[in-house]
């Protein structure tokens, strides 16, 4: 079990190293950093001095090592555009995205699991069939269309919810939250639903098919043959076995919710990381893009580590053997 | 003899499919007395397992019990509500499945699964149920049960897992145990241990056992009586010694002739039954065995034979119909070999 954890950690570190290298390469291949900083009329001598001062003359491995050391200390460089530390820029935007993503993930997980189990148990029920048909919409409609549709109904027609921004936020140390004010909560509703919709339907359909699969296994039949009540069979025997494969997909999906909230943030003009990234791409602000890339990498790696830990909790076969996951 | 533990009368099970209704079980009747082991043999698809599932009420759609009666200790159980039938399962009828590797939930400790089952059927406290679980594990021959109770299924060998499965079936001291191919997935040396365990448990607790298998060796060693099934019907049923040594039904004769023995001389070839059992969708009219039967005459393809009491056997074959004066004429061939061939 220790070996299993260690291996996961080493893998995570390797992945982060690779992501950092790609981020670092962006500085060299996406535009010329000197040209981005100095004006049009700078002399060749000015450029060479700046290049030396910034350490761009050093060999690449040295530069990469310095980049890594700085990044590890939270120094991600200065934004070309705004002239402020990238770390500070990310820090300002982080709470908005995390709040949005975590609430969406929670909604997708809770509702997706509940509906998935329900549609599996009442496989032939009318309501289950209606839910399954409706979920096709969720799987096939693009996110921005759902967002725009929600805005049209609830902001334009009904005028219940604001169509953009976070509303009033409350500052708690370096964190800002919209959960403590009414306008903040109202602003969250539509972006959260929009972002959660696809994940929700995906988790639901996955849970349903896995659950149906597990319900056909011999140990479920044997549990029925022992007179174990259906409720216990569904929620104790079947659900936990269902969770093993579901956790993998869900983990990856939750990572992408945090990482790729870009579309939803753009539709709702949400002041989060995704919106910051879109702006940076438009003005080729390489340090911000590189930092965002590493952030996304970090999110995936952390989520994967957590997924591995959940595996260990769920499946005793992994705990006793130091073997890699069976599936 | 007192009232049988299990009494099945004219049981019929159907599967509704797009291509019509398939009769998996068609008019099966048998009794099992207290402490008795009834072996049920037949080829794959003869309806052995379906009979077991029907008795315990685990026929899943599109299958359904289409007729007949199942009585447990005199009480009719085939028409109980799902909830009432659930209370019968595990409590009064225990079931053992074929593959011990897949019968146990891999994510829960053996003890958790035992305690859960015990508490489903009794009012024992957690500590009481755990104590009982340890006793059960000891009874089925698991060494160091106090320690093994906290193991997960994957930490047990195949034979040990099947012992755990048997312990689970015994949780509430059922009157009847249905063992569906309990040894098929095990090593031969382990098979013998599991069989002797089942025999001992049946003897000590007076439990009636319905042993479903295609292994005649297991039947000969374990069963008191044996039912030979063919195409969803019982071809012959009777005391194991008589049915094995002097089978009456032509199919049973063929089945017994196909068992290799060590004392056979090299000239003796294993008897083969020509052809194969019909699919459920193509069961012929009359006697389902008549296309393969060397004794068959026109009546066999017309009339369905009803079980006839003949000595200690009950046999569904027109050859033994005392009211049919022509039957004896066809019996002449009985001593001729069915057809000889090399066992492959």
Automatic annotation (TrEMBL), chain A:
This is ABC transporter permease. InterPro entries: BPD_transp_1_N, MetI-like, MetI-like_sf. One of its GO terms (biological process) is transmembrane transport. It comes from the Bacteria. Coiled coil: none annotated. It is a multi-pass membrane protein. Belongs to the binding-protein-dependent transport system permease family. The chain crosses the membrane at residues 12-30, 100-121, 133-154, 188-207, 246-270, 290-314. Pfam families: BPD_transp_1, BPD_transp_1_N. PROSITE patterns: ABC_TM1 (PS50928). Residues 94-311 form the ABC transmembrane type-1 domain. It is found in: Cell membrane. Its main location: membrane. Keywords: Cell membrane, Membrane, Transmembrane, Transmembrane helix, Transport. One of its GO terms (cellular component) is plasma membrane.
UniProtKB/TrEMBL annotation, chain B:
It is a peripheral membrane protein. One of its GO terms (molecular function) is ATP binding. It comes from the Bacteria. One of its GO terms (cellular component) is plasma membrane. The keyword Membrane applies. Keywords: ATP-binding, Cell membrane, Membrane, Nucleotide-binding, Transport. Residues 8-256 form the ABC transporter domain. The keyword Electron transport does not apply. Gene3D superfamilies: P-loop containing nucleotide triphosphate hydrolases (3.40.50.300). One of its GO terms (biological process) is peptide transport. It holds the Pfam family oligo_HPY. It is found in: Cell inner membrane. Belongs to the ABC transporter superfamily. PANTHER family: DIPEPTIDE TRANSPORT ATP-BINDING PROTEIN DPPD (PTHR43297:SF2), OLIGOPEPTIDE TRANSPORT ATP-BINDING PROTEIN APPD (PTHR43297). This is ABC transporter ATP-binding protein. It comes from Salinarimonas soli.
């Amino acid at each position: 079990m220790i070996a299993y954890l260690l291996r996961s950690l080493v893998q995570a570190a390797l992945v982060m190293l690779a992501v950092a290298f790609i981020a670092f390469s962006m500085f060299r291949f996406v535009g010329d950093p000197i040209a981005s900083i100095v004006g049009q009329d700078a002399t060749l001598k000015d450029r060479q001095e700046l290049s030396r001062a910034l350490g761009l003359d050093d060999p690449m491995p040295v530069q990469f090592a310095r980049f890594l050391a700085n990044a590890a200390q939270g120094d991600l460089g200065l934004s070309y555009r705004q002239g402020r530390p990238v770390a500070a820029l990310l820090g300002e935007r982080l709470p908005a995205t995390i709040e949005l993503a975590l609430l969406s993930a929670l909604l997708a997980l809770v509702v997706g699991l509940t509906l998935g189990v329900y549609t599996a148990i009442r496989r032939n029920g009318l309501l289950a069939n209606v839910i399954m048909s409706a979920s096709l919409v969720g799987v096939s409609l693009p996110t921005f269309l759902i967002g725009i549709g929600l805005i049209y109904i609830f902001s334009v027609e009904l005028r219940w919810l604001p169509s953009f921004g976070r509303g009033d936020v409350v500052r708690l140390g370096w964190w800002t939250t919209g959960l403590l004010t009414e306008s903040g909560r109202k602003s969250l509703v539509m972006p959260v639903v929009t972002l959660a919709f696809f994940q929700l339907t995906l988790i639901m359909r996955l849970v349903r098919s896995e659950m149906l699969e597990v319900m056909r296994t011999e140990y479920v039949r044997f549990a029925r043959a022992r007179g174990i009540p259906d409720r216990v069979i569904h929620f104790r025997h079947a659900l936990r076995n269902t969770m093993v494969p579901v956790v993998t997909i869900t983990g990856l999906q939750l990572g992408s919710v945090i990482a790729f909230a870009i579309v939803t943030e753009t539709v709702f003009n949400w002041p989060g990381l995704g919106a910051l990234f879109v702006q940076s791409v438009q003005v080729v602000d390489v340090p911000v893009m590189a930092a965002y890339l590493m952030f996304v990498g970090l999110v995936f790696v952390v989520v994967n580590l957590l997924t591995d830990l959940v595996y260990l909790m769920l499946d005793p076969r992994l705990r006793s053997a130091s073997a890699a996951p069976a599936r | 003899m007192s009232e049988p533990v299990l009494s099945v009368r004219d049981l019929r099970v159907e599967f509704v499919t797009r291509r019509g209704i398939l009769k998996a079980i068609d008019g099966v009747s048998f009794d099992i007395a207290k402490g008795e082991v009834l072996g049920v043999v037949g080829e794959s698809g003869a309806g052995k397992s379906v009979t077991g599932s029907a008795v315990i009420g685990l026929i899943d759609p599109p299958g359904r019990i289409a007729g007949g009666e199942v009585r447990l200790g005199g009480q009719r159980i085939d028409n109980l509500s799902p909830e009432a039938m659930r209370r019968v399962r595990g409590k009064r009828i225990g079931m053992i499945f074929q593959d011990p590797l897949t019968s146990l939930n891999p994510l829960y400790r053996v003890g958790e699964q035992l305690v859960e089952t015990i508490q489903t059927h009794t009012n024992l406290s957690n500590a009481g149920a755990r104590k009982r679980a340890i006793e059960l594990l000891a009874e089925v021959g698991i060494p160091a049960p106090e320690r093994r109770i906290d193991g997960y299924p994957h930490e047990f060998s195949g034979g040990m897992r099947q012992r755990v499965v048997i312990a689970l079936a015994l949780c509430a001291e059922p009157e009847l145990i249905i063992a569906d191919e309990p040894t098929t997935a095990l090593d031969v040396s382990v098979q013998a241990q599991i069989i002797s365990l089942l025999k001992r448990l049946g003897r000590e607790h007076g439990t009636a056992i319905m042993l479903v298998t295609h292994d005649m060796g297991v039947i000969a060693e374990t069963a008191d009586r044996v039912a030979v099934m063919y195409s969803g019907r019982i071809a012959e049923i009777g005391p194991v010694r008589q049915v094995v040594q002097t089978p009456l039904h032509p199919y049973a004769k063929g089945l017994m002739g196909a068992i290799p023995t060590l004392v056979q001389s090299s000239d003796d070839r294993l008897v083969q039954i020509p052809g194969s059992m019909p699919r459920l969708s193509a069961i012929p009219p009359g006697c389902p065995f008549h296309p393969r039967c060397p004794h068959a005459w026109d009546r066999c393809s017309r009339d369905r034979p009803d079980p006839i009491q003949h000595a200690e056997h009950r046999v569904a074959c027109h050859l033994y119909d005392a009211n049919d004066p022509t039957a004896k004429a066809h019996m002449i061939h009985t001593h001729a070999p069915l057809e000889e061939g090399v066992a492959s």
